[in-house]
Design goal:
- This protein is an all-alpha fold and 150 residues long.
- The chain has a domain of 92 residues.
- The chain contains 5 helices and no strands.
- The longest helix has 25 residues.
Length: 150
């Protein structure tokens, strides 16, 4: 009787994998938010794998996978949102994307902010540092050649 239940679970898992594969292949690259759609479809693969592991008697592994798979999917989606999703995340838009060609944008930086400084101020500090480094002869860099045969 247990063999029939395991076989049924493996058939269900195989069916879910086939449906997920068809959905993943048929998803167009031109679709809006395609990365999020792909992550959603891969969630079906995850469930199919969990069902297959239960069918094979790997309950602990299925439980661990059940816990870790959503965390990894969320991490991928969050990383894409924070670094590459210019379509939905307005913070990532460049100045050229935000403003028409006829308008100019002035950067306003709070003077009291501990981490943000005006660009001109930073360039002046960098030029001062480079002049100090040129005039400072206290430090020298030497290299040693090491021959492996010795």
């Amino acid at each position: 009787m247990i063999e029939y239940i395991q076989s049924a679970l493996l058939i269900i898992a195989a069916f879910l994998i086939i449906i997920s594969a068809i959905g993943l292949i048929s998803l167009s690259k031109d679709t809006k938010n395609v990365v999020y759609g792909r992550i959603h479809i891969v969630g079906l693969f995850d469930i199919a794998c969990i069902i297959a592991m239960i069918g094979l008697g790997q309950y602990l592994l299925a439980g661990v996978y059940f816990i870790l798979a959503p965390f990894s999917a969320h991490a991928i989606a969050n990383a894409y949102w924070k670094k590459e999703d210019r379509e939905n995340n307005a913070d990532l838009m460049t100045v050229e994307e935000e403003v028409d060609e006829n308008h100019t944008v002035e950067e306003e930086v709070d003077e009291n902010h501990p981490f943000l400084h005006p660009k001109e101020k930073m360039q002046a500090l960098e030029s001062e540092d480079s002049e100090k480094l040129k005039a400072d002869d206290r430090f020298s860099v030497t290299t040693i050649e090491i021959d492996e045969g010795e």
